[in-house]
Amino acid sequence: MKKNIAIIMGGYSSEYEISLKSGNVVYNSLNTDRYDAYRIHVFKDKWVYVDEDDKEFPVDKNDFSVTVNDHKITFDCVFNAIHGSPGEDGYMQAYFKLWGLPQTSCNMYQAALTFNKRDLLATLKPYGIKTAESYYINLGDKIDEKAIVAKVGLPCFVKANKAGSSFGISKVYKKEDLKAAIEKSFKEDDEIIIEQFLDGVEVSVGVISYRGKVTVLPITEIVSENDFFDYAAKYEGKSQEITPARISEDYANKVRAQAKKIYEVLGMTGFSRSEFIFKNDEPYLLEMNTVPGLTKESILPQQAAAAGISMEDLFSNAIEEAMKN
Predict the structure, then answer these.
(1) What is the DSSP letter of 125?
(2) Which of 227, 228, 250, 281 is deepest in the core (most CB within 10 A)?
(3) Beta-carbon-side half-sphere exposure of residue 188 (alpha carbons within 13 Å)
(4) What's CA 295's distance to the chain center, in Å?
(5) What is d(CA 282, CA 258) in angstroms, rounded to the nearest whole number?
(6) Which domains are seen in the chain, by residue range?
């Protein structure tokens, strides 16, 4: 008997357009002999099922069901394709946990922790995970440019603490430009992390639960045409994403081990994609994504393909793993 799969997409953040693309890729990739897929758009002002004719039907949040032509539809599993809030920060995970409804991303605590860059890095440091020097600012704090430069140096990166797809991020070369970069980040979040610039090879490592086993996917080397791996580099083709990465076997072994260790230490499930930069021959963690992009341009599907895993298999496996757990 076919399973009903709700693919949630959209969200409340600047990443909603990318999420809609990811969700539609999942929708178009699932095996229709095994699954009946439903596109569920989640926005602040509405949760709706969108049919093939783009007609909208409201979601009943009391039990996460949809009624179409007097027929009530419930779901066997939720495929989470929401980047940013509320799909990547724990809110949707908690909601589905209360209903006992399987969903494909990690659990609530892991989602909330990994979405908060500052908390994630602080949690992993005792486990020997190397990270860049950093400086924190909250909305309303006094901005002390001299103290920032003394801590992290120049150039540095100013980032929104809880945002993805490089929204709210700037590379700053001069102390005089810090305030403008901080204001840009505050448009995305009320917490900021300012990090030391690490000059080295940047790689992205996908780790998934595949057929019951923690699996590290082939490593991707990121070579941006821009000053760093920003939105245009990620989604407008202004970067080279080379899989497998052109790094030594020693580098590859080190970063694979670190990515797998992070996944296991945090008790992760579902997809993850971690970004690292090599400094002094060691991988330094930048951040971790638990609902990574799933468009055809996205890194994780490229890595899966290099491992011989098709899009259909990648997504079906995520659903089966979620329902098994």
Answers:
(1) G
(2) 228
(3) 25
(4) 12
(5) 10
(6) 3-104 (3.40.50.20), 112-130+199-324 (3.30.470.20), 133-196 (3.30.1490.20)
